[in-house]
Write a structure and sequence with these properties.
One of its GO terms (molecular function) is metal ion binding. By secondary structure, the protein is of the alpha/beta class. It is about 30% helix and about 15% strand. A ten-stranded mixed β-sheet has the order 7-6-5-4-8-1-9-11-2-12.
Length: about 475
Amino acid sequence: MKRYKMIFVLIAIFCFAQTNAQTNFEPESKKKPNILLILTDDMGYADLSVNGSKQVATPSIDRIADAGVTFTQAYVTGPVCGPSRCGLLSGMYQNRFGAEHNWNDFPEHYKEEYVGIDPTLNIMSDYIKGNGYSTAMIGKWHVGETKDMMPNARGFDYSFWMGGHHSYFPKADKNKLHRNDGPVTEIKVPYLTDWFTEEAIDWINKNHETNPWFVYLAYNTPHTPLQAKEEDLAKYAHIKDKKRQTYLAMQDCLNQSIGRIFETLESTGQLDNTIIIFTNDNGGPCGANASINAPYRGEKSTYLEGGVRVPLFISWPGKIKPGSKYEVPVTLMDLTPTLLAAIESTEEPETYEIERTYPDGVFDGVNLFPFIYGNKPEKARPHQTLYWRTAFRGKAIRDGDWKLIVTPHDLPMLYNLAEDVQEMNNLTLTMPEKARELKSKLANWEASLESSPRFFTKNHWLKEKYKQYEKDYILIQPER
């Protein structure tokens, strides 16, 4: 009998210990994930080894794709830096709040408070911070520089940032860098890509033991000016084109930086509970920085595939199948509702449906998890139709596999992307009814926009931009 009593006591102690453990410790799968969103600037679609580059190896960037899902048809909402970032961070078409043009060169009579994301709207960081996250913005901001548009007013606890164009070798007395709301007067790391990386690593190391964290790491590389470190340039001495050599060296440095961030996440035991996203703000500007968008024709500021299609990889260990591909069109404005599904849902994110309407507005983006998990009907798409517009410069629509581009200087361009992804064969004259149908649909979308553009860029570069539709582009990967 004593023996049985001892067994009962042991069972009771074990059950109490199990109950107590479940009460005091949250299961690993229920912890809110950390989020690292990496955005590059003016990178060519082809210039990653995971996308087939033979000239530059990018194993650390490729690692994100290998560990998660690759979106083979990912689009930006605008073909230039500022509008694209507005769509990414707001989760909606930036046209809804009048931010259609870039703002590095707009007429003097426009007011600075119009230039950026409307401060009355919540953005990705506001929502994430509201879910108990520590938040940091590091890198290129470029969505408004009035006090109520700066990062620390937009849901970021910490920021180390620049507005737009910047030298990669900043000087203490000549730079446009900000730490939170104040100017930077001391140079701690001589090369800007490395400095942004060190800022991100330092912040993660200081904050990872408290709340879950969100880092928006928006590198300005490989945007011009083309400036690289000597040790990186030396690796590409065999490239005769000086522009291309410098560009590849900058890509190499970027890859090294992401490798250091991986080392930090691994050494601190955070990698398995971190969502990592890698993407780019628009197509590479081939003439300006020698980037390559192969196999697509076009470049930054055009609505050809080379101007609006970008790499997009998302990894989340234990949640997203490594090495998977999603081959239906998505857009970067989907990232805000997708991340909210990951951190707000009491259900598994792959089944959670976030409402289109949110406290202060409407998301045009959608939660991508049900699609990448295959929990939608076979023919369902995140977006049947996608739209683009830069007022007085051009506009476009993709409906299914059909795409129509309209510019002020030429006939509309109609393409069937399922058969002609390089957009070589304009079908407007042979299929006028299809062109008319898409143009009408595009006009209906434009009519639904309640805000007119709040500012415009100057016209001096207009002719140059129109020539981009007629240029010859590199459509295959160059040899080493």
